[in-house]
Automatic annotation (TrEMBL):
The lineage of its organism: Bacteria, Pseudomonadati, Bacteroidota, Cytophagia, Cytophagales. InterPro entries: Papain-like_cys_pep_sf (IPR038765), Transglutaminase-like (IPR002931). This is Transglutaminase family protein. It comes from Dyadobacter frigoris. Residues 162-222 form the Transglutaminase-like domain.
Length: 273
């Protein structure tokens, strides 16, 4: 399936402001990039680098005035990867590859080592078979028990906050899922990008777990994990995958996000839903 994603950030800049962005797509298995664009108006130079997680990043200094940043991508993507049957087996920590070990550690927004998180993880999934069944139970519990609501959380909201107050957006849903899965020694990371199946189109966040030697996506916002996705970045939590990070006096005035599927969804895939 060919899929397009577009995001337009408009800023009022009151003093020259250094920013870093993660707005260009990853090149990896499951998504083949057909075309992409990254434009800043007024035109200014920017540099690029790759971060610790392999995410393509951009860096520039915004001039005073109104600045618009536009990112576009068209990609050939597969439907969201489904868990195979038989289910992949849970991996003991001793058997995990070195490169995923940091995904079982607590992080800034995902305090997986706290007693409160442990108690909730045990309540939801403590009696289930380790691995997929636990992850799906956590995903389903968050979907059914946390209310999706804009404007009640901010950049300081953590997994523990969401466990207590139970209101938030996709970023918050994902942080709580990550913390609960890591508490059960399941490597889990945060992924951001575009998803076609959203009621209100926006840049989206979901989580991926490492079981049976591979990464699988789970989405606590959806009733079930499905749809087509373009991955932009992944990391431990939102601190690693912020779309825009600014170091100065600039105010985001608007963000417009567009997602489009360019071909009809295959009938076979529809019948399998």
């Amino acid at each position: 399936m060919r899929m397009k994603g577009r995001s337009i950030f408009t800023y009022d800049v009151y003093a020259p402001t250094t920013i870093t962005t993660m707005l260009r797509p990853r090149r990896e298995e499951g998504q083949s990039i057909i075309s992409e664009g990254f434009h800043i108006e007024p035109p200014i130079p920017f540099s690029e680098y790759t971060d610790l997680y392999g995410n393509p990043c951009q860096r520039t200094i915004l001039p005073v005035g109104q600045v618009t940043i536009t990112s576009e991508v068209e990609a050939q993507v597969n439907p969201t990867k489904v868990i195979p049957n038989p289910l992949p087996k849970f991996m003991l920590v001793s058997d995990l590859p070195d490169e995923v070990m940091h995904y079982i550690l607590p992080s800034r927004y995902c305090q997986s080592d706290l007693h409160e998180i442990n108690m909730l993880a045990m309540e939801i999934a403590g009696n289930l078979v380790p691995g997929y069944e636990q992850v799906e139970a956590i995903r389903s519990w968050i979907h059914n028990n946390i209310t999706y609501q804009y404007g009640v959380t901010d950049a300081s909201t953590t997994a523990v906050d969401l466990a207590r107050y139970r209101f938030g957006v996709c970023r918050d849903f994902t942080h709580l899922a990550i913390a609960l899965c890591r508490n059960l020694c399941i490597p889990t990371r945060m992924t951001v990008g575009y998803l076609d199946k959203l009621k209100d189109i926006d840049l989206h966040a979901w989580f991926e777990v490492y079981i049976g030697g591979d990464w699988y996506p789970f989405d606590a916002v959806q009733e079930k994990t499905e749809g087509y996705r373009i991955e932009i970045a992944h990391g431990r939590d939102a601190a690693d995958v912020a779309m825009v990070t600014q170091y100065g006096n600039a105010i985001l005035k608007s963000l417009t996000v567009e997602v489009e599927l360019l071909e009809p969804e295959p009938e076979q895939h529809q019948n399998n839903q």
